[in-house]
Amino acid sequence: GLPINLLAFCLVAGITTTSGLISNSLLHLARFPEERAFLAADPTRIPAAIEELLRYDAPIQALGRTTTRDVELHDRVIPEGARVALVWGSANRDGGDGRMPFDRTKAGVT
Description:
Elements (H helix, E strand, L loop, with lengths): L1 H30 L1 H9 L4 H11 L6 E4 L4 E3 L2 E3 L4 E4 L1 H4 L19
Antiparallel strand pairs: 1-4, 2-3
């Protein structure tokens, strides 16, 4: 019922995303010491780095949704009421070399 669904949503939205962001951040700061040094040199870069960490390795990779109307996409129709998976974890990858530049301008990305 609704109370269980709401509890599950709050668990995913509040706890899982935060713990995923923290653990992913620690992992990537250890994997890319030059990026850690880049942040340490100027802590004002940290807010943008958090956004980049969320893009680079999303704490939640996908969630299911239900279409509310027919949707045409790439010459196909997804019917109303169909369950679909939004996989933004892979959609957020820019096709680069797998590096995670906190300074997006270094990578030629704006």
